[in-house]
Specification:
Metallo-depent_PP-like, DNA_Repair-Maintenance_Comp, Calcineurin-like phosphoesterase, 2 domains, alpha/beta, single chain, Purple Acid Phosphatase, chain A, domain 2, Calcineurin-like_PHP, 16% helix
Amino acid sequence: MSSWEAIDDRSYLDSISVTVVEAVHHNDEKLDWRLTVEDSSGKQFELEIWNKHNPLTEWVEGAEYVIREGYGQTWDNGRKKKLHSSDKWGADRVDSTPDCRLMVMGDSHVGRKKHPSKPHQSIDCAGKFEQAIEVAIAHDADSILHTGDVFHDYATEEDCNTVDAAFQRMQDAGIDFYYILGNHECDRGTRLLKRWERQGVATHLDMEGSDITDDLKVYGYDHRPGSKFSVEEMDVPTLLMSSVSILVLHQTLVPFRSGADVDLDEINSKPFGGFDYVVSGHLHDPERPNWDDGEFLYAGSTEDISTNTDASDPSVWFLTVESGAVDTLRRKL
């Protein structure tokens, strides 16, 4: 592990362990955090984290972190130095180990070749799926939750080869992939997912639930058209035994969309105490609206396929579960 001495001007530092002495959250368009940190030798210096590098970490004073691939800056003949976040950096807190880290992604639409409202805009849905998986690996995700529409209505052999390679990366990294079916999908893609189920990497979620850890259980329900959606037919469990329970859907939902056909409050009234967290696909913009019954987010798409003129950037989400609590952070792709 490197120290302050190893910071060189305009060079990447492989890794360094630091303790945060002071953390100032700027949260403006450019600078997200400015930290004063201390290395293992007791040397203090500044670490600046820029919003363009999509920071995930909430910085806690007194906590210890490992910084990877920070970008060095020196002046005054090397007597003064600082580190910056970079386009390939990573940071992990090492004095606290979460029970589980989930990455939530959705609406990958692998196979789609044209933007729905901008036909001249280039999109690469398979490539973005692969990129999202690399983000999960880089941030040490234990499992991935996919909120549906992994595939579009048709996928080429090349598309499937890209997804296959991503699943191989997940298998090598020990990451499990939990998914539901959306309103698209295709036969070739579904066969691919079933093949990875047989290899123990993918799991098709249902309302019986899947145990991620002893204290975390995830449930899922495939997309139904609103006119055919029945809460009674969902067979929602009346008792949720895990400390944290998450429901994965692919629907447009009331109360977040007034004209929607599916009422999330009605679903959540079935189990005693309700689900702790609900994540949904189907909308292509990432959102995290307030919900009186618990935590909720629309995952959004991993590629820019929203038809909204003010669409948010393609994203994934990280849910860090620790001692029955869930911390949520969004990461742009």
